[in-house]
Amino acid sequence: MGLWTRMKRSMRALFGGILEKTEDPELILQQTIRDMRDRIPDLNNSVAQVMATEKLLAKNKDRLETQVVDLDSKIKASVKMGRDDIATAYIGQLQQAQVDLQKTGHQLEHAQLASQQALKARDNYVLQMQRRTAEAMQLINQSKQAKLQEQLAQTMASFQLGDDASTFEEMRDKIDRRAAAAEARMQLGTASVDTQMQEIEREAMDMQLQDKLLQYKREMGLLPAATSESSPQALPAQGESVPEGSQGTH
Predict the structure, then answer these.
(1) Which class for 165: exposed (0-12), middle (13-18), buried (19 or more C-beta within 10 A)?
(2) Within a domain: residue 46?
(3) Which domain holds residue 208?
(4) Same domain, 47 and 135
(5) At what angle do helices 25-80 and 84-157 cross, to 10 degrees?
(6) pLDDT tens-digit profile of 135-168?
(7) Which residue has the higher pLDDT, 224 or 229?
(8) Is position 243 within any domain?
């Protein structure tokens, strides 16, 4: 082993020991909680910007739909009056408005998906922050108990108890390390379960919202009423025609 490598190893060990002694777990955990809470306003601002884009696109789509209907009426009125020149001009505007409406519709779909994902990410972060805060508070309480135990151990060590006292301290340290390692493994084993439960809760909420949407559509006559003899079939996408011979067959 080279001299430079040995020097680097010694320096790392020296400064690592100094940092470990100066670190206060309680202060670090409290600062971590504050940092997580401070990120929430920025996260909310980001979600609000995404939702604002969605709302703006929705308003543009409504305006273009109104414009298309208005131009269609003007074209029919011009044709009735025999003003083909004016009707031709309106037709050009109508075609451009239809193109803009189609583009805006696609952009709105992407914006709606982005809003849903942003809201889901924000909600997941808040749930994670709450869980981490509870864990941090528990660790802080354990750290306070550990300090009291250290003070008690120092007091006991000041008495001349002979070899039995050193054996007691050694065995207690081993038991504490073993218990800490077991708790760490348990936390690692339950972390993935918490994440899965969180995703299941979100999926269940999404399914309830989708069922409610289908119920509204059926009440408004936009979807056929559900029956026990036939299962619902997927509606064709916008602009997609239904193949001949597929209607009326199951």
Answers:
(1) middle
(2) yes
(3) 159-213
(4) yes
(5) 170
(6) 878 877 877 777 777 777 776 666 555 555 667 6
(7) 224
(8) no
